[in-house]
Amino acid sequence: MHGLHQLCSGLPRCGYNGLSCEIIVSGIINNFIKAMKEIRLMKGNEAVAEAAIRAGADAYFGYPITPQSEVIEYLMAENPEERTGMVVLQAESEIAAINMVYGAAGCGKRAMTTSSSPGMSLKMEGISYLAGAELPCLLVNVVRGGPGLGTIQPSQSDYFQAVKGGGHGDYRMIVLAPATVQESVDFVKKGFDLAFKYRTPVMILSDGIIGQMMEKVELFEQMPRMTEAPEWATVGKKPGKPAVVVTSLQLQAEEQEKVNLRLQAKYREIEQTEVMYETYQCEDAEYLFAAFGSAARITRKAMELARAKGIKVGLIRPITLFPFPYQAVNELAGKVKGILTVEMNAGQMVEDIRLGACGKTKVEHFGRFGGMIPNPDEILAALEQKIIGG
Amino acid sequence: MAENIICAENLVYKKSEVLTDRVMHYCPGCGHGTAHRLLAEVIEEMGIQEQTIGVAPVGCAVLAYYYFNVDMSEAAHGRAPAVATGIKRVFPEKYVFTYQGDGDLAAIGTAETIHACNRGENILIVFINNGIYGMTGGQMAPTTLPGMKSSTSPRGRDVQSMGNPLKMTELVAHLPGTYYVTRQAVHTPANARKAKRALKKALEYQKLNKGTCLVEIVSNCSSGWKMTPVQANQWMEENMFPFYPLGDIKVPE
Ligand SMILES: Cc1ncc(C[n+]2csc(CCOP(=O)(O)OP(=O)(O)O)c2C)c(N)n1
Ligand code: SF4
To answer: How much is the pTM?
Structure first.
């Protein structure tokens, strides 16, 4: 994986992209794939919607909220019921939407919902139930600034909510942080795959920038909808077999502890297997930026400015926020003189970077928040002030 | 002698195949058990055990899936109609029901109930109205009668400060999405027979795809009401039925 990232990072397009690597590897495959792939200029939210249809999703339930309403608008306009048989329903609230997802997911279907920060808060009880009942589903949070009604401008201030829990109980969900519209598309497919592999909710933690901007995307081909229901799904009792129950309830503490132990074992396996991150210009780096999603893209520009001034700075971009690339951070921390996290929040991922760095080097945070987007100049200034000069 | 009596031709009643052998946790005399039995019998008689998916509430019936021998999903408090919507939308050909108490359906789940009914989801909602929160120990419910005592209305429900009881069944009957709405009871054999007929109609209507069917069952909660089962049934007849009159509220034309 790491080598693949190294390869990709040399490409003009920012971001992890399995396909780009294939193209480098083989020109013949390249031409073949190109013939099949469809390239479009798409808005992030619409691309997610199109990817959902193509990923063979069975059901989407959502409620409008800026800056992600284009997802449901696109789906309604596209009428996937006719294209693939996918169900799309506008629910009466985010609470209803997530519980509809719970119902459909319990039937073994690929179910998803999307929202933005205040709406995601409403879904938290439902997400905890999904995690507890071990149901797969895909969630997309196109984050906007908070707290409260906040602003409709982009933000990364739901990192804690997504990565550390949000809902009640000891659960985790896999969190994928795209930095491009392309990744948003690819993560819809990957997200469903991971959700079913581990029977767990998976969240794409995007933001208003990625949701709203238009970029070139390569759409994967239409995948068939699943035809076979997993054995844990409520599909109607099978003769001679016990009825299937989807529940997160275990009144006996001993039993509930067993459920928790099973969940924890699953989370450890995810930590072992599913970590994704990208490094950029870390080979000679004396300093390191750490940033995810859109903030990482802006930080790349700051790196150019820094390197033009002779400051050797690299970047680590965690792609999975859970599982977090602690190991990679730890190794890099041993090689640099300091790490600056750049986030569109008041300092959330910085806590995980500190955990990863484990005291090996100094870790500071630079952020703009409440819907403000940092610019490369101020990121560079923060590096000089907080890390190099500090 | 006794073994001669136990033979097929003497069999007048048996436990439904759609009920498991698990001992129910409901208090003695509680209507939940009877309502379960009736619904199970209907599912058995219709031969739809393998096509039925149920949704259990949060409330005393939270463990309904221990007793119904059909595939079931346990919903968050109040969200059963949304969960059932998710199920029915991906499996339109299955029979889907929710089984909910009054706190679940008419307080925390008001929006989900009204909107599922308003969309005309082709599901059956079985609504157990016992005028109280049974599971959490007898607190006031949206259906608690004026003046009725509960652990959170110890001096009786004061409608001025605590609001009025909510007739959710009448409310959803007004919605164009509902097809069949009725209020029943299960505390006497005669009522149980009527309630069973209502449940059967409701599930049969589900085949027609004409909209939501809601069967309310006015029931007792002897523990929450702090009465013996016999007193509770009597109190129910004298106080609950005048406020929540039994009978059909909306029938198909
Ligand atoms: C979100 C949430 N709030 C509160 C509760 C606690 N709770 C469990 S059951 C219940 C009331 C159930 O009463 P009702 O729906 O009338 O059913 P009954 O027990 O009377 O059958 C409450 C408040 C909960 N489980 N979840
Ligand atoms: S508390 Fe009330 S509703 Fe619950 S089982 Fe006992 S009698 Fe029935």
So the answer is: 0.93
